[in-house]
Amino acid sequence: MKIYVGNLSFDTTEDELRAEFAAFGKVESVSVITDKYSGRAKGFAFVEMPSVSEGQAAITGLNGKTIKDRTLNVSAARPREDRGGSYGGGRRSGGGFDRDRRRY
Predict the structure, then answer these.
(1) Taking the alpha carbons of 84, 88, 94, 96 in that order, is the dihedral positive or negative?
(2) CATH topology for 2-76?
(3) Which of 4, 6, 47, 45 is closest to 26 using CA atoms?
């Protein structure tokens, strides 16, 4: 079961999260999400637990718990949305030369 952990302190480590979740069962992986340019934590993570019942117990036990002065938001992770692959696509109104109408 993949679990979303939000509202983390920016200095929370994967080992600290693993310890919190291990109290509820086996933890397969912990991934604190970081900014790809700065390397700084973004304040959320994903934890994977092999057992759904242990994952649900962890969600119930840790949602709302305060760690490092931050109240955690813990829930089942939702599937990632497909954002398409375009960069800003579509025609913009105003500004620039309009080739079809031969004007700016």
Answers:
(1) negative
(2) Alpha-Beta Plaits (3.30.70)
(3) 47
Specify the length of the chain in residues: 104
Rounded to whole angstroms, how far apart are CA atoms 70 and 99? 54
Is the whole-model pTM more than 0.70?
A: yes
The whole-angstrom separation of Cα 104 and Cα 95 is: 7
pLDDT digits (tens, 9 = 90+) for 35-56: 999 999 999 999 999 999 999 9
What's the whole-number mean pLDDT along residues 14-37? 96
Neighbours of 4 (CB within 10 A): 15
Q: In the chain, what are the domain boundaries?
A: 2-76
Q: For residue 47, give the 3-state DSSP assignment.
A: strand
The rounded distance, in Å, linking the Cα atoms of 49 and 44 is: 17
User: What region, left, alpha or beta, does residue 43 occupy, with left being phi > 0 and alpha being psi -120 to 50 degrees?
Assistant: left
